[in-house]
Amino acid sequence: MQYFLFRRTIGFVLTLLAVSVIVFAVMNILPGDPALTILGLDSTEDARAALRLELGLDAPVASRYLEWMSGAVHGDFGQSYAWSVPVGELIAERLPLTLSLALSGMLFTMILGLVMGVLAAADHRRFGDWGVMFVSQLGIALPAFWLSILLVLLFAVKLRWLPPGGFPGWDEPLAAMRALVLPTIALGLVQSAVLARVTRSAALEIMRQDFVRTARAAGLGRSRILWRHVLPNALVPIVTIIGMQFAALVTGTIIIENVFYLPGLGRLTFQAIANRDLFTVQALVLMFAAIVIAGNFVVDVAYLLIDPRLKGRMR
Fold it and tell me: What parts of the sequence cross the membrane (predicted)?
């Protein structure tokens, strides 16, 4: 177990290091002048030279990368050109909202997807199964931004049950939770449709096993067999897709936050791109990559907790 965790930790660090090199290369090494990108085509050469000097863009590429990574380890990503504040402060201010939205979307996805998938498997080739498959296929086909607009029109404009957008802050917990309801549904509905189909397939595979037939012969109830025996043994493929979905949920916040005007990392990404704030964009891409890689690391560890028999295969 310790050796496995050590290997995965090393892999996590190396992957994040490789991502940092790619991100830095795209922003600083590929053809193009970062100062020209920030100031625009109408800028003068003197203005661009002054900006290069101010931001340290005239230093060698290798030293700039080492300085950036050294600061990133301590949470210092440099100074934001657009907001004139440290990039780390911008990220720290908006990270809680993005993580809250991603985690609530993941929770919504897991609950709805697992329940729909298990019920579809239990009602295989009957009305319940067909209904779940139809709804899940419809959910997969719906774009998240279009679904967001429909939710706003129905629950905010028509019924007036929930706010259409904005975020009041964490000082008002109930208002903050209400503000995240529609974004959570919009973010998690498509992913729950995918999870429902994977759960159904995994559950059907387990239901064909001998121990399930033995449990039925022993007189165990249908719900107990499904939730106590079938679902736990089907978790390995389900956890795999959940890990992939967490990455999709984190990156999906970029669109959802802009639709609902939520001041998280997703909206900050759009604003930084619009303002040509390359240092902020650079830090945000690295941050999103770190969250996704960390999610995959947690999934790898979860495999061992779900099925200890996998220890020997993961050495």
Answer: 12-30, 99-122, 134-157, 177-198, 234-261, 281-306
